[in-house]
Structures are given as C-alpha cells and as structure tokens.
Amino acid sequence: MAYAVVAQYRCAPADADAVRAALLKAQAASRAEPANLMYEVHAVEGEPGGFLLYERYVDREGFEAHKAADHFKEVVVGVVWPLLVERTVTFAEVL
Fold first, then answer.
1. Please, are residues 91 and 1 in contact by the beta-carbon 8 Å criterion?
2. Exposed end of the chain (fewer CB within 10 Å): N or C?
3. Among 3.20.20.70, 3.10.580.10, 3.30.70.100, 1.10.8.640, what is the CATH number of 3-93?
4. Are strands 84-93 and 36-43 parallel, antiparallel or unpaired?
C-alpha cells in the first residue's frame, strides 16, 4: 500500500533561502529514488520561512530507504533540520 508523508517545516526568515535551496536539492534526488512516487516542496503562502513537503512512496519500506539515502542524511538531516525552529511530520497509508 502506498505511503505518504506530509512535513511542515518552519525556519527563521533569514534562513529561508538556504532551506529552500536545500529542499529543492533534496526534491531532485528523492524523485530519482526507485520507491518514490511524488516529492513536492511548497513555500507556505504568507509565512516567510514556512515550507510544506508532500511525499509518496510505494510503501513504508520505500520511505525507510529514502531516510537511509546518503542525500537525505547530507541535505535534510545535515543542512535543513539544524536551521528549523519547528518541524511537524504526519505519516499515512494512502487509501
């Protein structure tokens, strides 16, 4: 069953350009993963430093493989997460 991830990120407005660039880099690499069905990065309207990510994978194992990927560790864990002031993630099975 397909697996979805919705992440809401917020950083200081001063860090928004760096976070945006890193998220777009992560988007390009993630879309090339075999189990990835969709990876969309959105800037939240009216909220400088606000981002929404919507991801879909073939299954939960595909998402686990995504988290284990070098690009995830380097870009998301290494660059994006340290710049965030808030991070909320929702996991769901697609019906």
1. no
2. C
3. 3.30.70.100
4. unpaired
Domain ranges (residues) in the chain:
3-93
Got the DSSP string for 11-58? E-GGGHHHHHHHHHHHHHHHHTSTTEEEEEEEEPTT-TTEEEEEEEES
Residue of 4, 36, 18, 3 whose CA lies nearest to 81: 18
pTM of the model: 0.94
Token pair belonging to 2: 């397909």
Q: Nearest-CA neighbor of 39 among 13, 74, 16, 63?
A: 63
What the block records as the tokens of 19 is 């976070």
What pLDDT, in 10s, does the model give residues 8-51? 999 999 999 999 999 999 999 999 999 999 999 999 999 999 99
